[in-house]
Amino acid sequence: MNLFRSEEHIGRWLDGRAPGATITAGKLCDLAHAWWGDRLSPEWKPHPREQNQAILDGLGLVGEFWHLG
Amino acid sequence: MESPDLAVRQRTYGLFVDLGRAPLAGEVAVACGVSESAVLASWARLQDQHALLLDPSGSRIRMANPFSAVPTPHRVHAAGRWWYANCAWDAFGICAALGVDGEIETTCPDCGEPIGTGVRNRRPTEPDLLFHCLVPAAIWWNDIAFT
After folding, report:
1. Does the CB of A6 have a partner CB in chain B at under 8 Å?
2. Which CATH number is associated with domain B3-64?
3. Which CATH homologous superfamily contains domain B70-143?
4. For residues B117 and A64, what is the distance between their CA atoms, to the nearest angstrom?
């Protein structure tokens, strides 16, 4: 799970491997705040899978790749 | 998650932030008023629930996501300290968890050049950088260190 400057760098890094999913840092920042924002809260409780899936879905991260299983 | 394990988890995370590093089991034990063996047992159960990751010895924290207990290519300056994140997602997650702005430094896995972005008011200063996730979500925890 890495940052890159461009699709060209991702393609070279993959070096023939099947690609995963690419999103912008802006979307990643939204995802990080939704996913980790409560991690230090005194009221923190484990996220059920459905809650985490809803975070992904809410950001448009849908489809087989983003399905938590 | 049982209440004693939740208490150990909360103390573990609290100490991680207070100390700026992963706490030792003995430190968590003192903070919780329980034995070190009880902390280690809680940590093992928390790992089973994907709430943290232990090192191969099972006695030290490896990941308290989004924080990494060991150096990684993903560094974050936030809340007056440098932190290591487990990945680029977790780097933004450290700013999110701490609820502060920050600076993220990493390197391009392709060319090795430095990549940096700030986080200001929950937004990246370099929003067009790209994040690539190689592993599908369904199997992230099969090998979370690789993921």
Report:
1. yes
2. 1.10.10.10
3. Alkylmercury lyase (3.15.10.60)
4. 30
Q: Given pLDDT bands bounded at 50, 70 and 90, which one contains residue A50?
A: very high
Q: Which two tokens stand for residue A6?
A: 């461009």
The verdict on a CB contact (< 8 Å) between B111 and A9 is: yes
Rounded Cα gap, residues B4 and B42, in angstroms: 8
Can you give the residue ranges of every domain in chain B? 3-64, 70-143
What does the longest C-alpha to C-alpha distance in chain A come to?
A: 45
- Could you list the beta-strand ranges (E) of B12-136: 53-54, 61-64, 67-68, 74-78, 81-85, 102-107, 114-120, 123-124, 130-133
Cβ–Cβ contact B122 with A under 8 A = yes
Tell me the pLDDT band of B139, cut-offs 50, 70 and 90: confident
CA angle B134, A69, B124 (to 5 degrees): 45
Query: What's the pTM?
Result: 0.92
Of the partner residues B115, B122, B135, the one whose CB lies closest to the CB of residue A20? B135
